[in-house]
UniProtKB/TrEMBL annotation:
It comes from the Bacteria. This is Helix-turn-helix transcriptional regulator. Transmembrane segments: none annotated. It comes from Gordonibacter faecis. Keywords: DNA-binding. The keyword Nucleus does not apply. SMART domains: HTH_XRE.
Length: 88
């Protein structure tokens, strides 16, 4: 049976890969938002987070694990297909 240390290492690798994907998603959102000429505050309002732009900032930094539903809302707000944001 594998040691627990090995499983922790595998788990860490999987988490890092997932974090990397959220970072790339955030980069794509930031790029598309800039291309649309929107501020983070404007995008936040368009996706239902009117009280703060910091949520969009955290998404763009890859700090938030966004749901697929939210990715759809963001894509709609940015006038792009979901696949334009997650093409990695």
């Amino acid at each position: 049976m594998p040691s627990s240390k090995k499983w922790i290492t595998i788990f860490q690798i999987m988490e890092e890969a997932l974090d990397s994907r959220y970072a790339r998603l955030g980069e794509a959102i930031a790029k598309k938002r800039a291309e649309e000429g929107l501020t983070q505050r404007q995008l936040a309002g368009m996706i239902g987070h009117t009280s703060s732009h910091s949520y969009v900032y955290r998404i763009e930094q890859g700090k938030v694990r966004v749901s697929f539903e939210l990715i759809i809302k963001i894509a709609d707000a940015l006038n792009v297909k979901v696949s334009d944001l997650i093409d990695f």
